[in-house]
Each structure stands twice: as C-alpha cells, then as structure tokens.
Amino acid sequence: QVQLVESGGGLVQAGGSLRLSCAASGRTFSTYRMGWFRQAPGKEREFVASIIWSLSSTYYTDSVKGRFTISRDNAKKTVYLQMNSLKPEDTAVYYCAADRVGGHYEYWGQGTQVTVSS
Description:
mainly beta, four-stranded antiparallel β-sheet
C-alpha cells in the first residue's frame, strides 16, 4: 500500500499564496503518477494537477494554469502544489492521490483545507 499525508492548507486572502505538501510512504517505488484534486462543499471532486513521477511531466486544469505549479522531491518522496494568486473559488479541501501503474488513482490522502477570503 501507499500512504499519503497532506499538509500546508490554511486561510489566506485573495491574491495570496500557499504551498501544499504530500508526503508518500509505503510501497512507493512503483508509483507512476501523483495528482492533486479538490472538492468544495456541495460540489463534485475535480482534478487540479498531476505529475508523472519518473519523467516530471505535468498537467493542469485550465482554471489553475499559470497560477499553480506541481513539483516533486524524489529524495523526500514528496509532491508539492505551489498555489499563487489565489481566488475565493479556489476554496476547497485539497486531496493528494497516487496512481501506481498509469491507470486509476487508487490511493488518497485525508485532505487539507484551503480557504481563500475576499
């Protein structure tokens, strides 16, 4: 199994920045892809960003492109989400997820709350 623990969430004013961290442990050697998702109250979960671990290839949803950056630290087994120019609509619980072999995301963290005030 792969265990994921998110941290770095909090309250920030519009236009501010936060950096989320996701530390992975367990059987991580075969992990193919990691991603960030978010879910606001009463809304469906949506994809935010992903990174292919071995290649460092990244993908972003259009609403965050140019503002958010996903990156990895192989030595620390950690993936980051740098969030700049935050907007109130970014308010959500942010989840880290892992895909072992390039199929579906099957491992999920507990989530960290991000609140952006006007």
